[in-house]
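Look over this entry.
=====
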Amino acid sequence: MEIWINPACSKCRSAVSLLDAEGADYTVRRYLEDVPSEDEIRAVLDRLGLEPWDITRTREAAAKELGLGEWARDAGARDRWITALAEHPGLIQRPIITADDGTAVVARTEEAVRDALSR
């Protein structure tokens, strides 16, 4: 299991605390420092069963600068969104846990973290 976190994020810290409390075996990835490649983002999206716009923090300054609110949200625009996430990792919703069964969850709630632990 791996968790993508921003240590400054309270939801990330809560998720890590819960994983620790449950004795989970996991690896921390500080994705702002260890930026995921476009291929890694695609793989996580496949595991999540989501599209890139579903995990994009559209209220961030970088999103506004890029004009993401105006971008199409369809198959033709998918690669453009993935490139934006790879170039601006602060736009990636957090935390994301990749579970041992090959799935992943956006673990913003205790319930989502527990769901990842159960997989």
